[in-house]
């Protein structure tokens, strides 16, 4: 029964270096990728290139931080490392809320897109808290049911959004669609500053939860036995996840496998379970993947809009290999 | 001291714990015995506030477990559940260090580290301390979980089948160790045990349960008798005295 | 308990009545004037037949998948089958744009078969085959294949075509454009002929060998059936989610899992559910239409959630 399995190469390297050095190396790599992205092929047109690429990098970094953190947090509270908020229908829920607001108040209803973002994010926090806490509560033992419910919720929310979209008059539908068909290139400079602020606030929230998050890894019952108020912590984490998903979905649209991929890699390279280092590691890996991917696609293959597709493909593929690879 | 008043747990129409009222004195070793499904684990879970009671109340050192903040209780009461899978890769030393969380809140002091080292030594785990939990045997994992509860350094310790997965040597060692924790350190230990002979040889007091109700409470001499065991388990057994301990023969 | 055969017969009769009513509704509901016999013959009748055939086919494909994968939560769209078929359609349309539909469908069936076989292989390689990681792996596999399709389509300006196969929609079904689906009916009957063997295969490899069954061959045949039905459906009506998931689970509650007894019910209920969703889709925003795949996402998803949470509550 005891499975003494061979540690994979990555984690062996991680344990030899220690978490501090691994983080430093990741940060260095991320910085390198960002610098390369900003400078390669600029041809001296700095006045144009720097602000243009700067907004792009900024949004990629925000998304990287949001997706990575949301995924690791969600995996910790659900006690399962193949779940992500995206698989559980979080971003579909956000889309549904966005659509709902267009139906209720019209496409230009809030005036300022930033106000709209805040209102939508607030609604998202509320609904996500109610729905997912209800789900996590009732299947305290049967996490499996939760997973399936989440997947189905995702399809349900997506279909509901589509039905709602069809109910709109064609003009509004077009407005909505352009705002929905966002990708890593259609940067929303109007939202960047606000998104950064929201992300920072969420980061502080996560920071304050760090020790409790580690205890949650031991499971609900052990966490309670060690004096953690499980229900309250769970609620806070769900609210944080909702905020983070709102940020990334508002900026670039849904990304399914990125979070799963970077969380897995972070667990592999980090020789410890501690969130204080796993979370930054996951965020840095996500940054490297996104900015690096965009760099390669833009400069090497001259493809501008394909990053989300490529990340989904490679991310999903890597995961399947990881899952199947555990067999040996 | 642990006290329950009319503690009850229902699932729909099924009553798994039915109005249990107990007073378990401090500084004693209490065993809970009973057939599968008698409500032993549910009782333990309610006392340790892992499971909300449907009715009735439970007190630890006079504190109502349903009303006391979780972290206050966690410094007085530790519980070991039947083994639960942990998703993360955690070493044995990490796991035991989590026992200090109620005191340290994530920042271990030298005193905390001493507690951890003490618990590791107590359970013979030092050579394995830096192995990951998924790399050791079931028995070693069980000992690691018990070490975590000991490191928590609480007056009351509840254990749900602590002898699970342990071989003869480690099971006897574990019981001796728990006995010492009561005698030398003044702990109160309540353990669900399936091995009636361990319960008989080590306990100060035995609680016998059947169908959610307490059938009998008392010292081993009163509980480990052919009449009581027939009522609790519904089988015929033979009780013999071996070296002064009441021992049950039921194998054939 | 209470004479399951009699109860089954009662349900079957009820199902048949409901099915006829829904079919009639599907013939009657729409923008065009019904006195025009041409509309009926060219559009309504083909559309209704397409719905019945596709619904029955997908539901049967779902139940077969569930038996073969020994998992209640698997169906063509959660096992990589549907996405693989779509990839096949895309590839053959790129390589041989003028090929007849039958050829394209065959190519789609071939890739669907490959995708499903890959899924079963990955499953076999997984150490922990937890009940619900299985569909998750299938969904992930489908996502990967789907991302590959999207990438190819994106590079070749085929995104729009891809959309028509990915979203289930029968509003463009006309006479001459759905007849391929009769093939799915043939395949469904073939599945019925194999019912006992598939049921035994569903008990697992060991039980099958014990009963003297060539396990590998039955499984291969079964997934070939599933792949073909899926490919035919996608080529004519697009991907329709949930039918294969919801219907077999509902039917299993009332009629159990013996395929010979449950298959007709599964087929009938699948057809009925799809008809219902399409009629709803035509009515909600009359005179516009909401694609049947979208309506199915809402209705099927809702039904399945109720099913799942009620069963969960019953267990707890």
From TrEMBL, chain A:
Membrane topology per record = Multi-pass membrane protein
GO biological process terms, alphabetically, are: siderophore-iron import into cell
Q: Which organism is it from?
A: Methylobacterium nonmethylotrophicum
Q: Which domain of life is it from?
A: Bacteria
Which Pfam families does the UniProt record give? FecCD (PF01032)
Q: Which UniProt keywords apply?
A: Cell membrane, Membrane, Transmembrane, Transmembrane helix, Transport
From the Swiss-Prot or TrEMBL record, give the protein name.
Enterobactin ABC transporter permease
> Which InterPro entries does the record associate with it?
ABC_BtuC-like, ABC_transptr_permease_BtuC
Question: Which Gene Ontology CC terms are recorded?
Answer: plasma membrane
Q: What is its main location?
A: membrane
Q: Where in the cell is it found?
A: Cell membrane
Query: Which family is it part of?
Result: Belongs to the binding-protein-dependent transport system permease family. FecCD subfamily.
Residue ranges crossing the lipid bilayer per the database entry = 20-42, 54-77, 92-110, 117-136, 142-160, 191-210, 237-265, 277-297, 303-324
Give one GO molecular function term.
transmembrane transporter activity
TrEMBL record, chain B:
Using the record's annotation, list all stretches that form the ABC transporter domain: 2-236
**Subcellular localization:** Cell membrane
Q: Protein name, please?
A: ATP-binding cassette domain-containing protein
An example GO biological process term is: iron ion transport
Cellular component GO terms, alphabetical: plasma membrane
| Upper taxonomic lineage | Bacteria, Pseudomonadati, Pseudomonadota, Alphaproteobacteria, Hyphomicrobiales
Q: What InterPro entries does the annotation carry?
A: AAA+_ATPase, ABC_transporter-like_ATP-bd, P-loop_NTPase, Siderophore_ABC-ATPase
* MF (Gene Ontology): ATP binding; ATP hydrolysis activity
Q: Which UniProt keywords apply?
A: ATP-binding, Cell membrane, Ion transport, Iron, Iron transport, Membrane, Nucleotide-binding, Transport
Instruction: Indicate yes or no for the key word Ion transport.
Output: yes
TrEMBL record, chain C:
Family to which this protein belongs: Belongs to the binding-protein-dependent transport system permease family. FecCD subfamily.
User: Topology with regard to the membrane?
Assistant: Multi-pass membrane protein
What range does the record give for the signal peptide? 1-23
Protein name as annotated = ABC transporter permease
* Coiled-coil ranges from the UniProt annotation: none
Q: Name one GO molecular function term.
A: transmembrane transporter activity
Keywords per UniProt = Cell membrane, Membrane, Signal, Transmembrane, Transmembrane helix, Transport
UniProt xrefs under InterPro entries: ABC_BtuC-like, ABC_transptr_permease_BtuC
Record-linked SUPFAM superfamilies: ABC transporter involved in vitamin B12 uptake, BtuC
**Could you provide one GO biological process annotation from this protein's UniProt record?**
siderophore-iron import into cell
């Amino acid at each position: 029964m005891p499975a003494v399995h061979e540690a994979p190469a990555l984690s062996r390297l991680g344990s030899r270096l220690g978490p501090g050095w691994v983080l430093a190396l990741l940060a260095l790599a991320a910085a390198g990728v960002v610098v390369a992205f900003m400078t390669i092929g600029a041809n001296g047109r700095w006045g144009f290139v720097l602000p243009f690429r700067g907004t792009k990098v900024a949004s990629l970094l925000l998304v990287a931080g949001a997706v990575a953190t949301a995924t690791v947090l969600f995996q910790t509270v659900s006690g399962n490392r193949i779940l992500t908020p995206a698989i559980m229908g979080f971003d579909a829920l956000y889309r549904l809320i966005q659509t709902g607001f267009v139906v209720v108040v019209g496409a230009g209803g809030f005036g300022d897109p930033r106000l709209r973002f805040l209102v939508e994010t607030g609604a998202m926090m509320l609904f996500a808290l109610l729905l997912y806490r209800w789900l996590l509560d009732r299947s305290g033992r049967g996490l499996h049911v939760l997973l399936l419910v989440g997947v189905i919720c995702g399809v349900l929310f997506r279909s509901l959004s589509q039905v709602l979209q069809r109910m709109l008059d064609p003009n509004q539908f077009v407005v909505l669609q352009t705002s929905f068909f966002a990708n890593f290139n259609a940067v929303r400079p109007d939202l960047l500053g606000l998104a950064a602020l929201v992300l920072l606030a969420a980061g502080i929230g996560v920071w304050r939860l760090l020790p409790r998050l580690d205890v949650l890894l031991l499971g609900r019952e052990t966490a309670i036995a060690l004096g953690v108020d499980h229900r309250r912590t769970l609620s806070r984490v769900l609210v944080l996840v909702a905020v983070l998903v709102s940020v990334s979905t508002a900026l670039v649209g849904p990304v399914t496998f990125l979070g799963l991929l970077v969380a897995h890699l972070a667990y592999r390279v980090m020789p410890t379970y501690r969130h204080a280092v796993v979370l930054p590691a996951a965020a840095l890996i996500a940054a490297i993947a996104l900015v690096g991917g965009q760099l390669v696609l833009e400069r090497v293959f001259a493809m501008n809009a394909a990053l989300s597709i490529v990340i989904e493909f490679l991310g999903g593929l890597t995961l399947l290999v990881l899952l199947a690879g555990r067999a040996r | 001291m642990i006290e329950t008043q009319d503690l009850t747990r229902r699932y729909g129409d099924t009553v798994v714990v039915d109005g249990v009222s107990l007073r378990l004195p401090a500084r004693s070793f209490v065993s809970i015995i009973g057939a599968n499904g008698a409500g032993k684990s549910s009782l333990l879970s309610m006392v340790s506030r892992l499971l909300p009671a449907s009715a009735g109340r439970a007190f630890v050192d006079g504190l109502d477990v349903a009303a006391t903040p979780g972290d206050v209780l966690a410094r007085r009461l530790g519980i070991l559940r039947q083994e639960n899978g942990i998703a993360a890769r955690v070493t044995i030393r990490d796991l035991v260090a989590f026992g200090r969380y109620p005191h340290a809140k994530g920042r271990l002091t030298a005193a905390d580290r001493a507690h951890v080292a003490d618990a590791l030594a107590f359970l013979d785990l030092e050579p394995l301390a830096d192995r990951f939990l998924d790399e050791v045997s079931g028995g070693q994992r069980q000992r690691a979980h018990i070490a975590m509860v000991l490191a928590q350094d609480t007056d009351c310790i509840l254990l749900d089948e602590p002898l699970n997965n342990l071989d003869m040597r480690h099971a006897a060692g574990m019981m001796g160790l728990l006995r010492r924790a009561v005698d030398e350190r003044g702990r109160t230990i309540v353990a669900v045990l399936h091995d009636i002979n361990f319960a008989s040889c080590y306990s100060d007091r035995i609680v016998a349960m059947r169908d959610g109700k307490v059938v009998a409470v008392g010292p081993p001499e009163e509980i480990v008798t052919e009449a009581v065991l027939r009522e609790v388990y519904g089988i015929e057994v033979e009780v013999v005295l071996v070296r002064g301990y009441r021992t049950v023969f039921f194998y054939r | 308990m209470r004479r399951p055969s009699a109860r089954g017969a009662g349900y079957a009769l009820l199902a048949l009545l409901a099915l006829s009513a829904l079919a009639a509704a599907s013939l009657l509901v729409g923008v065009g004037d019904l006195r025009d016999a041409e509309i009926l013959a060219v559009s309504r009748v083909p559309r209704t037949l397409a719905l019945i055939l596709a619904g029955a086919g997908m539901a049967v494909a779902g139940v077969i998948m569930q038996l073969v994968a020994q998992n209640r939560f698997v169906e063509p769209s959660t096992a990589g089958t549907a996405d693989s078929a779509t990839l096949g359609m895309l590839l053959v349309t790129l390589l041989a744009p003028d090929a007849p539909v039958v050829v394209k469908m065959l190519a789609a069936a071939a890739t669907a078969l490959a995708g499903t076989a890959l899924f079963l292989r990955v499953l076999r390689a997984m150490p922990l085959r937890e009940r619900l990681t299985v569909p998750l792996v299938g969904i992930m596999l489908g996502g990967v294949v789907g991302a590959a399709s999207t990438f190819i389509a994106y590079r070749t300006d085929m995104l729009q075509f891809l959309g028509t196969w990915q979203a289930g929609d029968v509003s463009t079904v006309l006479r001459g454009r759905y007849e391929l689906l009769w093939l799915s009916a043939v395949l469904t009957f073939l599945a019925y002929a194999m019912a006992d063997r598939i049921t035994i295969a569903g008990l697992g490899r060991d039980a099958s060998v014990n009963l003297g069954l060539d396990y590998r061959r039955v499984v291969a045949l079964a997934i070939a059936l599933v792949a073909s039905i899926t490919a035919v459906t996608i080529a004519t009506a697009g991907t329709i989610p949930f039918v294969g998931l919801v219907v077999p689970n509902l039917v299993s509650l009332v009629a159990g899992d013996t395929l010979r007894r449950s298959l007709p019910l599964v087929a009938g209920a699948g057809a009925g559910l799809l008809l219902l969703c399409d009629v709803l889709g035509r009515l909600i925003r009359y005179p516009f239409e909401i694609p049947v795949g979208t309506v199915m996402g809402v209705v099927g998803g809702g039904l399945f959630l109720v099913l799942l949470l009620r069963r969960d509550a019953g267990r707890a």
